[in-house]
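Field guide to reading this record: the first block holds the primary sequence, the second block holds the structure written as discrete tokens, and the final block holds curator observations. Each block starts with its own label. This record concerns Nucleoside diphosphate kinase, catalogued under organism Flavobacterium seoulense.

BLOCK 1 — SEQUENCE
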Amino acid sequence: TTRTFTMIKPDAVANGHIGNILAMITNAGFKIVSLKLTQLTVSDAQAFYAVHAARPFYGDLVEFMSSGPIVAATLEKENAVADFRTLIGSTNPAEAAEGTIRKLYATSLSQNAVHGSDSDENAAIESTFHFATREEF
Ligand code: ATP
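BLOCK 2 — STRUCTURE
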């Protein structure tokens, strides 16, 4: 099996969707191997999204992602990265397929409910960013 990393973003936490999103994740066959409710500082969010530092939306993204609690989780499944991106749907909820997490719970392109890693390598980096070894099962 392989792993991916996800965050339930501040909009979805604030809107009361943690339980429903975790249910969709487990019902889709992902095993939760790390899980916590936490909040990113501005500098945490800057570091996590450093790859987007030159993008025009970087400042708003950092502000949003540090604006309230998130749920961080590491997930295990065969083909985890690609299957999770299918489950969450397109970055822009207006383009997300029916039944995807973003179609159901995202409010806009920037407040799009969930994050999903884009590669196995980034999944490992992102999981290590959030979790100590003793928090991975
Ligand atoms: P994520 O990395 O959160 O899973 P993604 O891989 O679908 O999302 P990226 O292109 O990596 O999308 O962008 C990271 C995040 O930055 C998006 O999830 C979204 O919240 C925000 N974002 C991306 N493009 C824009 C944009 N044009 N305007 C505002 N916010 C954006």
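BLOCK 3 — OBSERVATIONS
The pocket of adenosine-5'-triphosphate is lined by residues 57, 61, 91, 109-110, 112, 115-116, 118 (CB under 6 Å).
The mean pLDDT is 98.
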